[in-house]
Amino acid sequence: MARIGILGATGYTGVELVLALEGHPEAELVFLSSEASAGMRLQQVFPRLSGCTKIRNLTLRTAADCQDASVDVVFSCLPHGASAEACSAFLAGGAKVIDLSADFRLRDPSDYPRWYGKPHPLPAKLSEAVYCIPELHRQDLAGASLVANPGCYPTSILLPLVPLARAGGLGAGLVIADSKSGVSGAGRKPSLATAFCETNESFSAYKVGRKHQHLGEMLQELGRARTGGVPLVFSPHLVPMERGILSTLYIPLAASWTGARVRDLLAETFAGEPFVQVLAGEDGLPSTSHVAHSNRCHIGVAEQPEQDIVVVVSVIDNLVKGASGQALQNWNALFGYPETLGLAP
Ligand SMILES: NC(=O)c1ccc[n+]([C@@H]2O[C@H](COP(=O)([O-])OP(=O)(O)OC[C@H]3O[C@@H](n4cnc5c(N)ncnc54)[C@H](OP(=O)(O)O)[C@@H]3O)[C@@H](O)[C@H]2O)c1
């Protein structure tokens, strides 16, 4: 059994991890952190967890109080900034860290202030971190101590786009990523923008074009997939649903590429992957409800009459494939377990 700690267990991604680890045969939970609810049990904060046996004897402790715990793995579900600082003690103690925040996703320390508005709290560790969407980067995980779990929007966009960039299928011109997210993407901390009366029966765009912080990691990973990178604009939207992301990608195609060829490439790339499904043409396009509460990504390819562009639609659950499910998949891959362990198909 691996001894596991969760930093930020009272957040939406933390709770999702607790639920998944309950069904993981190799996981023993050793600590759960919270600042606001320290001293309580997690089941008191989330009564729906009352059936989880692995947390029954644990009391929530502050992140600082957890630092002396003896653990093999720490999942950090803290906000960026706080996460890097809290992770550093565990890394120094020899634990493996899987960080769900954005703190270790950008390799170049100068990118962090550009996207997150402040200097990186632990720049020396950035070169050790492995950015990993397992279906695209699992070969990079060998021997890693620090895994940067990708962002939710980037997971939905990079899964279809990176194979196409690697294969030379992208033409000249901009790729446009237009994404919609459920409100849980903003986390549990209350804010005016995510209050019920602001989001219910409303649909809004935010940080459109080249402003959203997730653009940084997407440009970085597309730069690794194709020499010279891929020009990308990204417009996220908030939709009045609890969970899920749908990304629609408008992709210019290289000469001799067609929508059918794109679908074939993606189907071949993800054949044998338990969590990524490329829909056949007759199956239409995916919806967020098709993947809710699962670690799956469904990808649909809409061929266009003039074959100069293709439109690709990708859906995930932001809290699972976009966060905690992918983190668990990364842990499984890192420790040599089947990647599906603890994750419902
Ligand atoms: N939500 C998503 O869809 C999603 C997807 C991918 C990645 N992420 C990333 O995953 C991380 C967690 O997201 P989330 O949605 O679960 O957030 P959340 O619901 O707001 O939860 C944040 C957690 O961190 C704790 N916390 C907050 N500030 C802290 C601090 N300064 N020091 C120590 N603990 C602190 C909170 O504990 P208390 O409030 O109990 O004190 C809570 O347990 C974030 O970095 C986020 O960007 C989120």
CATH homologous superfamily (4th level) name of the largest domain: Dihydrodipicolinate Reductase, domain 2
Please count the helical segments: 11
Low-confidence stretches: none
- Major sheet strand order: 8-9-7-10-13-12-11
Q: Largest sheet, if any?
A: 7 strands, mixed
Q: Structurally, how many domains make up the residues?
A: 2
The CATH class name of the largest domain reads Alpha Beta
The hetero molecules present are: NADP nicotinamide-adenine-dinucleotide phosphate
Q: Please report which band the strand proportion falls in: under 5%, 5-15%, 15-25%, 25-35%, 35-45% or over 45%.
A: 15-25%
> How would you sum up the global shape?
globular
In which range does the helix fraction lie? 25-40%
Architecture (CATH level 2) name of the largest domain: 2-Layer Sandwich
Q: How many distinct beta strands?
A: 13
- What value does the average pLDDT take? 97
Q: What's the order of the H and E elements? A: EHEHHEHEHEHEHEHEHEEHEEEH
**What is the gyration radius calculated from CA atoms?**
20 Å
Structural class, from helix and strand content? Answer: alpha/beta
Secondary-structure map:
Blueprint: E1 2-7, H1 12-22, E2 27-32, H2 42-45, H3 63-66, E3 73-76, H4 82-92, E4 96-99, H5 111-116, E5 129-131, H6 134-137, E6 146-148, H7 152-166, E7 175-181, H8 196-199, E8 204-205, H9 214-225, E9 232-238, E10 245-252, H10 259-269, E11 276-278, E12 297-303, E13 309-316, H11 320-335
Parallel strand pairs: 1-2, 1-3, 3-4, 4-6, 5-6, 7-9, 11-12
Antiparallel strand pairs: 7-10, 8-9, 10-13, 12-13
Helix pairs in contact: 1-11, 7-9
The protein binds NADP nicotinamide-adenine-dinucleotide phosphate.
NADP nicotinamide-adenine-dinucleotide phosphate (NAP) binds at residues 8-14, 34-37, 63, 77-80, 82-83, 100-101, 151-152, 184-185, 187-189, 318-319, 322-323.
